[in-house]
Design goal:
The protein is of the alpha/beta class. It has helices at about 10-30, 50-65, 85-95, 110-115, 130-145, 165-170, 205-210, 230-235, 245, 275-280, 285-295; strands at about 40-45, 65-70, 100-105, 120-125, 150-155, 180-185, 200, 215-220, 255. Bound molecules: N-carbamoyl-L-aspartate (NCD).
Length: about 300
C-alpha cells in the first residue's frame, strides 16, 4: 500500500517522479481542476493544531474532484475518551479511501498504517517527521534552482524538535549537489542520525553563513515540545531574520519556512525578493494532489 510515513522511504527516482507529478498537478489546477478522484473520500484526522497542512490536503482532494471528511480538532473526538490510534484508524479506513493524520506523538502514523486497510499520509507525528511538507519543500527548491547545481542549504532554529527539518534533511541526502549547514543553539541541536560527513555546525548565524547560503530554511522554536517553559522563552528569539541580515545574502538566495512563523522572521522581510515562504505554502496543494493521486493509484 502506498503509505507516506517517513522521508527515508523515498528513493531519488521516487522523488524526481513526485516532482514531475506535482508539476502536472499545477497545470491541472490552472486548467480548473480534475475529476480524477471523483467518488473517492479523504479523511483528515488531526490530533494537533494545523492550518496549512490540513487545508492544503483538503484543497488538494477537492481539486482532484474527490470529497473530504474532517476532524479539525481531535480533542472533540473519541481520542479524549481514551480510544487508541489503532481503533480510530480502523474505523476511518472503513469510511474513507485515504487518511491524512497528524499526532502529538512520534510514530502514530506508522502505528495507524499497521492496521489500516487504506493508505495513511503522515501529516506530522509529534517531533518525528513531516514527509509531505518536505516534498513540498523540495518542490519549492526545485522550482527555484533545479536539482542539479551545487546548493548550500542552511537549517536554522529548532533543529531538535522541528520535524520538517528531520524530513527535509533526509530527502536532500539523495542529492549529492546539496551541502548542509546547521545553525541552532546547543540545547536545540540536530540529532546525529540526521547529520552526515561534510556538514557544518554553528550556534551563531554568522555573516559567512548568510553570504554563502542558497536556501535558508528557518524554523519556529517548537513551544509545545518544551517541558520547561522558561527554556522556551530563553531560546525562542535567538535568531531573528531581519532586513539587515537578509542584505548580507545573495540576491538570488531564498528564505523558506514551513510556517507558522512567530518572531523568527520580521514582517519587514516579507516584501524582500528572498522571501519564499508564502509561495512555499501554496506549493503544498499540487504536491499533496500528487501524493493523494499516488496513494489512490490514480497515477
Ligand atoms: C510545521 C509543522 O507542523 O511541523 N508546520 C507545517 O506543517 N507547515 C512547522 C511548525 O509547526 O512550526
Amino acid at each position: 500500500m502506498r503509505h507516506v510515513l517517513a522521508a527515508e522511504q523515498f528513493s531519488r527516482a521516487d522523488l524526481l517522479q513526485i516532482m514531475d507529478q506535482a508539476a502536472e498537478m499545477e497545470k491541472i489546477i490552472a486548467a480548473g481542476g480534475s475529476r480524477m478522484a471523483a467518488g473517492k473520500l479523504l479523511a483528515t484526522f488531526f490530533y494537533e493544531p494545523s492550518t496549512r497542512t490540513r487545508l492544503s490536503f483538503e484543497t488538494a482532494m477537492q481539486r482532484l474532484g474527490g470529497s473530504v471528511i474532517s476532524t479539525s480538532n481531535a480533542t472533540f473526538s473519541s481520542v479524549t475518551k481514551g480510544e487508541t490510534v489503532e481503533d480510530t484508524v480502523r474505523i476511518l479506513a472503513g469510511y474513507a479511501d485515504v487518511i491524512a493524520m497528524r499526532s502529538k506523538e512520534k510514530g502514530y502514523a506508522a502505528r495507524g498504517a499497521k492496521v489500516s486497510s487504506v493508505p495513511i499520509l503522515n501529516a506530522g507525528d509529534g517531533p518525528g517527521e513531516h514527509p509531505t511538507q518536505s516534498l513540498l519543500d523540495l518542490y519549492t527548491i526545485k522550482k527555484e534552482f533545479g536539482l542539479e547545481r551545487p546548493l548550500r542549504v542552511v537549517f536554522v532554529g529548532d533543529l531538535k524538535y522541528g520535524r520538517t527539518v528531520h524530513s527535509l534533511s533526509q530527502i536532500l541526502r539523495n542529492f549529492s549537489n546539496v551541502s548542509i549547514d546547521w545553525v541552532g543553539p546547543a540545547e536545540l541541536a540536530i540529532q546525529p542520525e540526521y547529520t552526515a560527513e561534510g556538514d557544518r555546525f554553528f550556534t551563531e548565524l554568522t555573516d559567512e553563513v548568510l553570504e554563502s547560503v542558497d536556501v535558508l530554511y528557518d524554523t519556529r522554536v517548537q513551544e509545545e515540545r518544551f517541558a520547561d517553559h522558561d527554556e522556551y522563552l530563553r531560546l525562542r528569539d535567538v535568531y531573528i531574520i531581519d532586513p539587515e541580515k537578509v542584505s548580507k545574502m545573495k540576491p538570488d538566495a531564498i528564505i523558506m519556512h514551513p510556517l507558522p512563523r512567530v518572531n523568527e522572521i520580521t514582517a519587514s522581510v516579507d516584501a524582500l525578493p528572498q522571501a519564499r515562504y508564502f509561495q512555499q505554502a501554496i506549493n503544498g496543494v499540487p504536491v499533496r494532489m500528487a501524493l493523494i493521486a499516488r496513494a489512490l493509484e490514480l497515477i
